[in-house]
Amino acid sequence: MALHKLFRLSSLFRSAVSLTLRRNIGLSAVLFNRAKDLDPIQKLFLDKIRDYSTKSKAAAGGIVDAGPSYEKGVSEEITKLQRLYGTGDLTKFPDFKFTEPQLQEVAK
């Protein structure tokens, strides 16, 4: 009986150790990959993403790398739209107001 409990405890211990080792090996593999140098393509990709992130924060919600020609084109298009459709704020979504129709009851 005691031998059977010992074997059962041993198998539980083995499975717990196995699970712990698998988790630690998986974690150390991730840390090892981060520590060594990246692939040049990955490094270039990450550098471009970081560069875009800093530029987008500096643009404060505007278009990244928008030059004066882009701004001029946007203002010309807004002027055309205001001339065609009247004055108003074209950067805001319009408010639609629908009235309920008056229905008349039909006699049978």
From TrEMBL:
Its GO CC terms are:
mitochondrial inner membrane; proton-transporting ATP synthase complex
Specify the signal sequence span. Answer: none
Q: Where is the protein localized?
A: Mitochondrion; Mitochondrion inner membrane
Instruction: Write out the GO biological process terms.
Output: proton motive force-driven ATP synthesis
State the UniProt keywords alphabetically: CF(0), Hydrogen ion transport, Ion transport, Membrane, Mitochondrion, Mitochondrion inner membrane, Transport
**Family recorded in the similarity comment:** Belongs to the eukaryotic ATPase subunit F6 family.
Summarize subunit and interaction data from the UniProt record for this chain.
Component of the ATP synthase complex composed at least of ATP5F1A/subunit alpha, ATP5F1B/subunit beta, ATP5MC1/subunit c (homooctomer), MT-ATP6/subunit a, MT-ATP8/subunit 8, ATP5ME/subunit e, ATP5MF/subunit f, ATP5MG/subunit g, ATP5MK/subunit k, ATP5MJ/subunit j, ATP5F1C/subunit gamma, ATP5F1D/subunit delta, ATP5F1E/subunit epsilon, ATP5PF/subunit F6, ATP5PB/subunit b, ATP5PD/subunit d, ATP5PO/subunit OSCP.
The protein's name in its UniProt record: ATP synthase-coupling factor 6, mitochondrial
Q: Which gene is annotated as encoding this protein in its UniProt record?
A: LOC110495969
